[in-house]
Amino acid sequence: LFQDMFLNTLTPKFYVALTGTSSLISGLILIFEWWYFKKYGTSFIEQISLTHISPLLGGADDDESIEYGESGNNNQNSIQAPPQSAECKVWRNPYSLFRGAEYQRYKEVTNLEPLTYYDMNLSAQDHQTFFICEADNGKPEYEIMQLAWRERSPSERIKKAKEALEKNPDCAPAMILLAEEECSTVLEVEKLLRQAYKSAEASFRRSQQQQHHSGNHESLHRRDTNVFIYVRRRLAMCARKLGRLKEAIKMMKDLIKEYPSLNLFNIHENLIECYFETEQYADAQAFLAKYDDITYPKSATICYTAALLKARFVADKFSPDAASKKGLSSAEMAAVEAVHRAVEFNPHVPKYLLEMKPLILPPEHILKRGDSEAISYAFNHLRHWKRVDGALQLLHSTWEGTFRLIPYPLEKGNLFYPYPLCTEAADRELLPSQHDLSVFPKKELPFFILFIAVLCTVTALLALLTHQYPEHMGWVSRQAISWVSAPLGYILDKLEGLLPVMSPLSVKL
């Protein structure tokens, strides 16, 4: 009776306000959820549930990290991620451009930032680690350079580098910074790097003779070695960009020969690209045989270079129709398997090679198997694929077949470990905001976004109907509430009937 009296006192305006408010709130939640999903690739409500609610219910598992190496066990049909703990490791991009001569010119033309602050901050940390050591404490030029690497403004970095050169005209790290950021052409970069080379070589020879005297001397020699190698590598890249390919190849081969165990700068990837530019495919094949091994870390350059070299022998005669009718020859099978292997390692590359996605300038750091690595590889190797007749057609016909071999890429891999979960978040930090990030595997809309969208639609429809037909919707609401409350009232009546029956039993006990 009380319930009926309460429902009769509710006016149609109450139902309009109730449904309208519900529609507004659910609409705001939907907008926020959609924005959060587009920015971070996950649902906010789902993330909060997994982070804070699931541990209370005992449903949280420790995150498993993923190693990106290639398994040497050929007896397994699929490879699961080993239980090792590590983040998605970010690597220095061997194809990184010059900031002043290339990145800055792009910004002046397009008015778009080619690099993110996160990417540049990683470079600053690299430079502080490579070019400064503990033995430099008290040296004014190196203390200035320590501050210069940390400056966010390019003009401030250049200003401090010039101050360091005033303190010491032979400060090679200061020359490196000016060459990278102030010079507006590659010719100017090369000219300044040659001056840095003379200073770096003199410091290297001097510290080499004294490296065993003390710990500080050893630290100095390690720093001078890093500076010397970096300058030589960037000079080789200048020669490559200026078309002096033989000189660039010789400089890179000398570096690899002198420092065979140094994989810090991945100079071998630059050398492979130079071999392709000069069409020295036999040299590239012989050189690749050393690095395409289980003991060396894989990369898109290694995997896709192997695929291109095998495709070169069959691509000009390859026909999808003939292959479907007659089957694949052994050479064609080897090429297709190499393409599948490359696509499994980095599934983002084919869309850039096939020009299904626009390219941007590569960042200064890349994530193995991520979109950033794919951009860097395609930016430097697309013309090599175009040069081989039929290579892109072969890639177009076969690359999607890889996904039939790995139907659950986040759980099991075929030749490599499962695709890492962290690439999307890391690539969003490395790549500029104007780039449409490539995500693998393609994510479906989270359940909560769909649920809130349905809730918002239903409440908005109810608000509209209540506004148009207040009397009818009021009657429908009262009927719905009475239908819902009827079972509850029936259960309460039964419980009240059981209480007198149970009370004597409780007294006897």
From TrEMBL:
Matching entries from InterPro entries are given as:
ST7 (IPR007311), TPR-like_helical_dom_sf (IPR011990)
Chain intervals with Polar residues compositional bias: 71-83
Transmembrane segments in this chain: where? 14-37, 445-465
Q: Name one Pfam family in it.
A: ST7
GO cellular component terms, semicolon-separated = membrane
User: In what way does this protein cross or attach to the membrane?
Assistant: Multi-pass membrane protein
Q: Which CDD domains match?
A: ST7 (cd11557)
Outline the segment boundaries, as ranges, of region: Disordered. 64-84
Does Membrane show up as a keyword for this record? Answer: yes
User: Cross-referenced SUPFAM superfamilies, in alphabetical order?
Assistant: TPR-like
Q: Which UniProt keywords apply?
A: Membrane, Transmembrane, Transmembrane helix
Q: Where in the cell is it found?
A: Membrane
Give the family this protein belongs to, as stated in its UniProt record. Belongs to the ST7 family.
UniProt name for this protein = Protein ST7 homolog
Task: Please tell me the species this chain comes from.
Answer: Macrostomum lignano
